[in-house]
Design a protein that fits this description.
The chain has five helices and four strands, in the order βαβββαααα. It starts with a strand and ends in a 7-residue tail after the last helix. Bound molecules: zinc ion (ZN).
């Protein structure tokens, strides 16, 4: 199973501090608060627009629940290869700026471009969960800002992209002392959303 680890400062900062954080932090089981065993790490390749990073993913094992968990930093979705920020940009180009599906992946010249086929898959996945995320987001926005006029008449995918940005601004204004400016919209949504609705 995975635990999304809120991590606002990007991949380079992650690489420099994560090992120390893992080995010096006292962890406990999210289910029963029981003891844990550190279980080392495995490596994953993740891609931004221009860089490929090899990042360690750290694991814990909880003997009382017989479960192991991986800490997935919030800039990447579990099992995804491309950083959230990159996927967000491409979805934004297509949904908001109405660039065609075929044009979107190749729109900006990048070192790690995605195929049209991959982009179609992202879009399909995003469309399938967008209605539920919209409901979550609308509720969350109204909870934080009662009386806020939530955008109407948008498709669910456009609503999620738009409301996600509004939510990010609101959360930033509520927690000015937190270094939240580095969280991307999808990073923040994945910290807030339930596991089955990760974007
Ligand atoms: Zn447990």
């Amino acid at each position: 199973m995975t635990i999304i680890l809120p991590f606002p400062d990007g991949v380079t900062a992650y690489l420099s501090i994560i090992s120390n954080w893992y080995w010096t932090t006292q962890h406990s089981c999210p289910c029963c608060k029981g003891k844990t065993h550190r279980n080392g790490n495995y490596e994953r390749n993740v891609y931004s627009r221009d860089e490929c990073y090899v990042i360690p993913i750290f694991r814990l094992y909880y003997p009382s629940c017989k479960t192991s968990f991986s800490f997935i930093p919030s800039f990447i979705k579990p099992y995804a290869r491309f950083l959230n920020a990159y996927r967000f940009d491409l979805l934004q180009h297509h949904v908001v700026e109405e660039v065609s599906i075929r044009q979107t992946p190749s729109r900006s010249s990048t070192k790690h471009s995605v195929s049209t086929c991959t982009f179609r898959r992202w879009l399909k996945q995003f469309k399938s969960i967008a209605p539920k995320i919209s409901k979550h987001l609308a509720a969350r926005l109204l909870e934080l800002r009662p009386g806020l006029s939530v955008p109407k008449g948008l498709s669910d995918v456009a609503f999620v992209l738009n409301a996600g940005q509004v939510l990010k601004l609101i959360v930033q204004s509520l927690l000015p002392e937190e270094p939240l400016h580095n969280y991307g919209v999808f990073d923040m949504l994945n910290i807030l959303l339930p596991d089955n609705l990760l974007v």
